[in-house]
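From: lab user (bench 3)
To: helpdesk
Subject: output format question, protein + manganese (II) ion

Hello, I'm new to running complex predictions and I'm not sure whether the block I got back is the full result or only part of it. Here's what I submitted:
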Amino acid sequence: MFSSDTYQKRRAALRETMSSGAAVFLGHRDSPFNYAANCYPFRQDSSFLYFFGLNEPDWAAILDFDEGREYLFGNDTTMDDIIWMGEQPSVATKAASVGINESFPCATLPDILGKIRQSGRAIHFLPPYRGETKLELFKLLGIPPDEQKEKASESLIRAVVRLRSVKEAQEIAQIEQAIETTCQMHTCVMRRARAGITEQELTDAIENIARQNGGTISFPVILSINGQILHNHCHGNTLRNGRLLLTDAGAETAMGYAGDITRTIPVSGQFDERQRAVYEIVLQANRKVAEICRPEIPFLEVHLAAAHVIADGLIRMGLMKGTAEDAVAAGAHVLFFPHGTGHMMGLDVHDMENLGEQYTGYDDDIQRSRQFGLSNLRMGRRLKEGFVVTDEPGIYFIPALIDQWEGEKKLRDFIRYEALKSFRDFGGIRIEDDLLITKKGCRVLGKAIPKTVEEIEKTMRHD
Ligand code: GLY
Ligand code: MN
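Helpdesk reply: Thanks, we reran it on our side. This is the complete output you should expect:
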């Protein structure tokens, strides 16, 4: 946990933006996976963590913006809890540790919130995404779960996004710690990958590294010789020479901060000519992003620059044709690069995605494009100093998508379908780093994980 001062300052900053009403924050409860006492590993809601720091189940809070009062709700341990889970500091002690001096048992929450509602004041809440929270909000506010997203408070969402987007120095230190562990995970894959080992063995090894470092994984590991499947969580294959292995994985610190890095390596330890050629294009796009990210640049522009490098490289390889400008304007690169260049990262690996992409990924100037290929970008907004974003371009050969486009005779002025025939079993390449936006540019976070062809081959040779 950070110092109590940190949480007090964050809540004070929120109060400064929120002019009236009160906000209710529901921390997470334990979530059973087969019966009530046998639960998934606990993960606190990230906004609750950000403002209240308490990383355990069954907390709730109200911030009364009109009266400047802060209420924390939690239950002191019973003898039963002590027998099964051990002694815990009192609710009042924990409240004090995050700078709150009014704490109450959970059972009093409906009453206190009810009184605020009865006075006709607005109750702000963030859009819930867990069933348990939706039911709790329904009980407290009478808003049916399927109306809660639309009735969530836009002013609270905007205020929270504004605060959480700009990382404090101590948050950056946490993210760097997550990335340090993430580095160890990727280096482990590079050292252990070889024909005959299974994806599952490597996945287990890197999940262990995340846990041994005190935290866990920040999202389910993507580790596959079928890197063309973007979020492939199946680890059922055995590695074989000739294939590429794509690993997109990250650690989360005990305080909840994420790392998210992708590396793609040749199972044999040496890129063949074709793999190397495609790899160099993705690497160039990844570097272009880090070269141009700076405050005020729209991330949409960054994405288009990455797409341009990819289209240009594929034209030079003879897989696309025309000019890169025209190809990107027509969206032809999307056949090979069907995702956005990055997303915000922090307490969530896709930071604040639950608050709505129109707030976290876009701003008042930059709205989601309706243009083909750009309409699914998670992030287009202008960058600011203190943002942490990912830089993750890729090139994939997805046979079903190629067949669909070819069948529709789509964008034939830009795609050399004939030349793609021999790439159907190529797989996919993605390279991902995490960038901190600085005053004038950006910094790649973490110590360098092998990334060039030479560095990867050297690491795989155990030199
Ligand atoms: N690392 C997974 C993703 O960014 O979607
Ligand atoms: Mn990512």
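A quick orientation on your result: The chain has a mean pLDDT of 96. Let us know if anything else is unclear.
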